Every structure is written in structure tokens, then in C-alpha cells.
Amino acid sequence: MRVADLIGRDVYNRDGALVGTIDDVVVHRRDRVTGAVLSMGGFLGFGADKAVVPVRQLRLEGDRVVAPNLTREVMERVDNYHSRDWDRVDPARTVGATAR
Known about the structure:
Blueprint: H1 3-6, E1 10-12, E2 18-28, E3 34-40, E4 49-54, E5 59-61, E6 64-66, H2 72-77, E7 86-88, E8 98-99
């Protein structure tokens, strides 16, 4: 799926609970892992917590993006996103969220 098509999409867990919204797709400067920056909470994008989830954990199920093993509790324990550690991925690039 193209990065531009992922940005702005909601991510759900296997139970159908909303986990967050994809704000960006990034690659780690050191280990080159590609991740989706998920925004959780906040109001109109302000005050939201952000965490990175490896793209390999995302699945496309119909028109939904699903991260089967994520819960809000897991996301709250993940290190917060720090932009200094990540580079943005070109929006035209294709990433490997798997279809189901």
C-alpha cells in the first residue's frame, strides 16, 4: 500500500477497538525499521500521544487497517515517538502492510 494511502487512516485491534490514527510513516535512522506513527487521544490533533508501530504489524482487512495484537494499554507503554530518531518516508513509496 502506498504511504499516502495509509496516512490519516484509523488503526483497530482484533477486537475492533480503535487504537490510534496513522499520522505518518517513518524509517528509523539507526536500524532502518519502517514504522507507522500512531496518534492516540488529544483533540483535533493537539495533545495526542504518539508512538511508532512497525508496519509489519499492520494488516489490511477489507478497508480497515488492523494491528491484531495492539491494545490501548500496550500503546501507552510504548516509547513515545521522537522525530529526531526517524526520517519520513516518501508518500509515493509502497510499504508492506499485508492484505487479508
